Amino acid sequence: MARIMVVDDNPMARLFVxxxxxxxxxxxEVVEPSCLYEVFKALHENPPDLLITDLVMPLCPGLTLLRxxxxxxxLDKLRIVVLTSDGDRDLGQFLQKCGxxxxxxxxxxxxxxxxxxxxxxxxxxxxxxxxxLACQGVVAVVDDSRMTRAYHSSCLRKFGFRxxxxxxxxxLATRRALEELRPDLILLDxxxxxxxxxxxxxxxxxTGTLKDTPVLxxxxxxxxxxESRLESFMGVGIASKPVSVxxxxxxxxxxxxxxxx
Length: 261
Prior knowledge:
Number of domains: 2
Strand order of the largest sheet: 2-1-3-4-5
CATH class of the largest domain: Alpha Beta
Mean pLDDT: 89
Low-confidence stretches: none
Largest sheet: 5 strands, parallel
Number of strands: 10
Structural class: alpha/beta
Number of helices: 11
CATH superfamily of the largest domain: Response regulator
Distance between the termini: 55 Å
């Protein structure tokens, strides 16, 4: 089990976290944040496996504590859960630049908190970097190349989008995954081993949930022939591979801003 430090100026909040995690066998140390220096010193001298911290603490500003941890070579790999009722766009943008921080909004149930902590510790948690605070949109990244999906996802995260990678191994399964996700935009490769992009476009345009979803086809296949293949589909743009970070952002913003026909 893990060593967990809980930092919160509210005694009831500290007790809630401790009572949610101790029954699972974790060693939970609760810290009253009466001084930023003392909290940071305790972390530095004996780093826990996980830090759970509030943000709004008069004597220990949470954002300052996070910055200290991120900038300290002894703590820069520390796993951190930000558990707070405070949150805005600036916080979301800050968290999206951080690597090992998971955001949870108060109030949270003991079961959800315990589950997120367990999955964070075993490496299976998909971290929430405050997408609900600052997310400009959810983008489904559909490409048979894992490396291309990762590259496009990193580009999108830089500008505040939440990318969700979809591996297009089979047409109907891909359509179902997109229907469940309901993204704001689909970033789509064209030529894939299992099916071509126009086949997926026909499939999703036939569904009520995705018939108006904007699509940006990012492909190395360009020219009049490609434009002719896609011109019958409304709300579809084309970008050339390889696409730069800035160019991808511009094209995504353009197609999201285009009026729905």
